[in-house]
Amino acid sequence: MSQNAENEALKKDIEQLRNDLAALAKSYKAAGERQAEAGLDSARGKYYELRDEASRRTQDVGSEIEARPFTSVMAAFGIGLVLGKLLGR
Predict the structure, then answer these.
(1) In terms of Cα–Cα distance, which of 51, 49, 70 is closest to 59?
(2) What is the share, in percent, of the chain residues with pLDDT greater than 90?
(3) 71, 64 in Cβ contact below 8 A?
(4) Model-wide pTM > 0.85
(5) How far is residue 77's CA from residue 89's CA, in Å, rounded to a whole number?
(6) Which stretches of the chain drop beneath a pLDDT of 70?
(7) What's the rounded Cα separation, in Å, for the pair 18 and 81?
């Protein structure tokens, strides 16, 4: 093989390697984006789940207060008294 033919073959190999590396980088980037999107979707789902649970618990507490207003007021007073003593120190 002549020197010129070897140089041309080397140039082609380098260009093919460059193309392969670019394709590999693009593939890794796409996989990372898909994983990030899946993680974001999961976090959104968990947020909505927790928000709904908090809403249900708030409604339950409201119903309990309506059902037993005197007991609720006395419990709140007792908790406030204990917290006041603990934080007052």
Answers:
(1) 51
(2) 73
(3) no
(4) no
(5) 19
(6) 1, 89
(7) 73
Sequence letter at residue 2: S
Backbone angles phi, psi at 88, to 5 degrees: -75, -15
Place of tokens 């990372």: 32
Mapped onto helix, strand or coil, the DSSP state of residue 64 is: helix
- Cβ neighbors of 65 (< 8 A, separation 6 or more) are 72
Place of tokens 């204990």: 82
Q: Over 8-42, what HEC string results? A: HHHHHHHHHHHHHHHHHHHHHHHHHHHHHHHHHHH
Angle between helices 3-67 and 69-87 in degrees, nearest 10: 120
81-86 CB contacts, 8 Å cutoff, 24+ apart: none
